[in-house]
Structures are given as structure tokens and as C-alpha cells.
Design goal:
It is built from 14 helices and ten strands. It is of the alpha/beta class. The protein is elongated and about 60 Å long. About 40% of the residues are buried.
Length: about 300
């Protein structure tokens, strides 16, 4: 794995050459695929692209990114979408990609490192903890819950914790400014992925307030895998994983968010029931072995072809 966010451009090609791949697989069409496409094209190697929600919901329709996004998906020998909704949108805009898009649902793998939440944030008597895990950028809509939860915090003991790297500095500044002076909410910063299971086990509710998702949000799947109840925005990507009222709750606006959040804060039995159903669903439908085998089968077909 070559992490483009931490590897200088000149070093990327050297590392790939030293590895000598038979297939090059890029994550993210607009950000990851251009580098991978240049390397693969120059050496006659098959190129695979994993499509994200940002690729299909935003970059494909962005005036300055559309051309580059379309160019790389046309160059790829295969593409992977986490959910059929992404495949349908891409094919609607670039019809010739239809035979080359494969739907492979994500799975969940979490580490077992401990996260010292109690040492950082002491729990008050009766407090219900809500976690919003996300990379801090506008599409994740992380400021949205503050208004409704602020009203709830006046009636119930609760605490909102936001966790994740600041990807867009302007949005990070807005979040930190909005949290200033709030006694019931705070920002934990970026938590190593190996500690996320431990952190999830210490909270009661996980929030996803995204404006769009790529079919399946990692944060939602990971929370469900740990038996946490998820309160998520009623968007296509979240509906692909959560059945409202059966294994999580969905909301459409601030009023419904506040109403659903209050149900979860007041009712531990509801949290337990939805969390247990969520855990069972992820174990049944999204095992890591299935995702791995589907990717390996795709690579074998490309090499055989």
C-alpha cells in the first residue's frame, strides 16, 4: 500500500517499481487514480479503481474535476463500487463503463488497542455518550448535530464527542469555533484506527450526518460491527446499510434528528435492541473473507484476460 497523503510524488513511482505489481489498484478516482493510471499505462498493467462517494456524488459533477474523473474511469480496466447505487450513477454519466464496474461490499476489520477515553473525558452520572466519527470536511456535515443536541442537552445528560482528522482546515476551524464554550461536546482529534473498537465500546450512540456517502460508510459499518446503534442521515449511502427502526435510525432534518436522538438517549432498551441487530447484520452480510475473495477473483480475471 502506497499512501499518497504521506508519500512524495517522486517516491511513489520508485516504490511501485521496486514492488513490481501485476495489477495496480487505485483508491479514489479523482485523487488516487491519476498517479496509478500513469504508472500502469506506461507499463501495460491492468488498472483497477475503487470508486468513492466523493468520486461519484461530487467530483463527477464538479466543473473543475469532471473531466479528470471521467478520463481515469475510461482508462481503467475495472472499477469497484461498494454499492449498486454508485455503479448506476457512474454508468448514467459514462455509459461505456457499464461492463467494467463490479459491486463489492465493504467489510469491517478493527484492531484491539485500548483507547483511554475515561482518562480524557470523565463520564457524568447518567450521561449518554454520542460519537461522531468522520474526516472533518464539509461533506461530512459535522456541525449539523450541534443545534439539535444542544437543545437535548438542556433536558438530558449527554455528551457529543467528535473524532477524526481535519481534512479541510476551514471546516476544522468552524468546528473548533462552534465547540468553544460547550460543556456537553468536544473534539477528540484523530484516533488511530487500531483504537477505534475500544472507543466505540465506550459510547452508546454513533452519529453519521453526511451529505453523501459512497454506498457504505466505514464509520457506520464499524459502529454496527461493535453493536453500537447508529443515527444516520437519510441518504442513499446510509440506506444501503441501515434499515430504519430495525438495525438503526435515520433522520431527514433537524427536527427528526432531535426526535430520534431523544428516543435513543431516553431508552437504553431501544439502543440495545438496534445495536444487537446491527452487529448480527454486519456479521452475516459483510464478512472480510467475502470482500477479499471478490477482489482476488477480479484480479485473476484481469490477469487471465
Amino acid at each position: 500500500v502506497v499512501d499518497l497523503s504521506r508519500t512524495p510524488p517522486a517516491e511513489v513511482e520508485r516504490r511501485l517499481d521496486a514492488f513490481g505489481p501485476a495489477v495496480v489498484h487505485a483508491f479514489h478516482a479523482f485523487r488516487g487514480a491519476p498517479v496509478a493510471a500513469r504508472f500502469a499505462g506506461a507499463r501495460g498493467l491492468p488498472l483497477v479503481i475503487s470508486l468513492t462517494g466523493t468520486d461519484v456524488n461530487i467530483d463527477l459533477f464538479h466543473a473543475e474535476r469532471r473531466a479528470a474523473t471521467i478520463a481515469v474511469v475510461r482508462a481503467a480496466q475495472a472499477m469497484v463500487a461498494f454499492h449498486d447505487s454508485l455503479r448506476v450513477k457512474l454508468v448514467g454519466e459514462v455509459p461505456e463503463t457499464a461492463p467494467r464496474v463490479e459491486v463489492i461490499p465493504q467489510s469491517v476489520t478493527l484492531g484491539d488497542e485500548s483507547y483511554p477515553l475515561e482518562g480524557r473525558v470523565a463520564r457524568r452520572p447518567g450521561e449518554v455518550r454520542l460519537l461522531l466519527p468522520a474526516g472533518i470536511r464539509r461533506v461530512k456535515n459535522v456541525l449539523f448535530p450541534l443545534g439539535p443536541l444542544g437543545r437535548l442537552a438542556a433536558r438530558h445528560p449527554l455528551r457529543l464527542l467528535v473524532v477524526g482528522p481535519i481534512i479541510e482546515p476551514d471546516e476544522g476551524a468552524r468546528l473548533l469555533d462552534a465547540l468553544t464554550g460547550l460543556t456537553w461536546a468536544g473534539y477528540l482529534g484523530e484516533v488511530p484506527h487500531g483504537q477505534m473498537a475500544s472507543l466505540l465500546d465506550q459510547i452508546e450512540v454513533v452519529i453519521n450526518s453526511s451529505l453523501s456517502e459512497g454506498g457504505m460508510a466505514n464509520s457506520v459499518l464499524e459502529a454496527m460491527a461493535r453493536g453500537r446503534v447508529v443515527l444516520a442521515s437519510d441518504i442513499e449511502g446510509n440506506r444501503s446499510v441501515i434499515e430504519d427502526g430495525a438495525d438503526g435510525l435515520l433522520f431527514g432534518d433537524a427536527e427528526s434528528f432531535e426526535r430520534q436522538a431523544e428516543r435513543l438517549v431516553r431508552d437504553p432498551a431501544l439502543r440495545a435492541r438496534l445495536g444487537a441487530a446491527a452487529r448480527a447484520k454486519v456479521a452475516r452480510l459483510y464478512p472480510p473473507e467475502r470482500e477479499i475473495e471478490a477482489h482476488l477473483a477480479l484480479y485473476r480475471r484481469l490477469l487471465a484476460g
